Amino acid sequence: MNDSTGSWGEGPLVAFDLETTATDPHRDRIVTASVVTITPRGDGPPSVRTRTWLADPGVEIPPDATAIHGISTEHARAQGRPAAEVVAEVVDHLAAVWRPDVALCVFNAVFDLTMLDAESSRHLDRPLALTGPVLDPLCVDRHLRPVRDFTDRRRLSDVCAHYGVRLEGAHTSDGDALAAARVAWKLARVHASEIGFLTLAELHDRQAAWHRAHEEEYALRLERKLTDRLARSGESEQTEEWRARVDRIREAGRHWPLTPDLGPVRPPRRSGPANANAPWTPALEAELRESWLATDPAETPETARKTLATHFARSPTAIRARLLRLGCDPEAPGRTCDPARAAELKRRYEAEYPRD
What we know:
Elements: E1 13-20, E2 30-41, E3 44-56, H1 63-69, H2 73-79, E4 81-82, H3 83-97, E5 103-105, H4 109-124, E6 134-135, H5 137-144, H6 156-163, H7 173-190, H8 192-196, H9 200-233, H10 239-253, H11 282-293, H12 301-312, H13 316-325, H14 339-352
Parallel strand pairs: 1-5, 3-4, 5-6
Antiparallel strand pairs: 1-2, 2-3
Helix pairs in contact: 3-4, 5-9, 6-7, 9-10, 12-13
EC number: 2.7.7.7
InterPro entries: Ribonucl_H (IPR013520), RNaseH-like_sf (IPR012337), RNaseH_sf (IPR036397)
Organism: Saccharothrix violaceirubra
């Protein structure tokens, strides 16, 4: 391990994280926000100061989001503060602690910072001011360990496990923020020559290039999937949606750490009532399987299944069962599953609805 004395990893750091209603940074809302300020104190442990806010987002919190972060609509309405007040305090607090010589550490910064920017414009009528450099451990990790394929997941828990970093209070904004800071420190030490000894300004600029390279590679993987799909099945009504998605990914990759609004995260969906008993044609099954395998592995299984349920006018339970029959892992977006895993999931699902 390289000596990282004198690197930014020995200095102060501000970490930031959000828990939200869903995954569209321009349209969904903040539920909790945390800012963790870490200041070195000589040879002793650093000073760690945490501020956390709970907002009433003003919209329903979907059950699948509640299942992740534990905050229901009822709890947010009863205990949360008005969203405008929370956003104003978060923005003002960041402006006070995030300076040109102090990095803001945010895991998947393009999501959290874009959402805060959108919320600031929505409630305060002003964009988020970038008052210092940004450090995104996810972006840095993807540069150091390029993503192999759709099954190569890089959730915070995955990255923490890879680097041997503690993750306490997963899916709480304060727990995730502190874990992101720990990953950043580990990166500065383990990869001192590549990362740790860069100036914060250099690191900020390089991450913009690394983000663009990653998004371009992701777009290329989707294009290869689309080419294979066209070779098997020809053009369909979904083809243009796939092409539009690839274009959006490429355009978004040109912007870091804030992304412009390029339209809804998901393509247009089928309309109509859910009908779990409607017949599945081979074409629909092929489309479902391809859609699942093209799903971002970082997306939560519940959200991904709900999206497909709306798209195919089925129930989420029907989507889950059909994915399992098609050799996909309904609990791991972007992945297939082997027979042993399929049998395990089948037993679990059957236990949810025991037969008399």
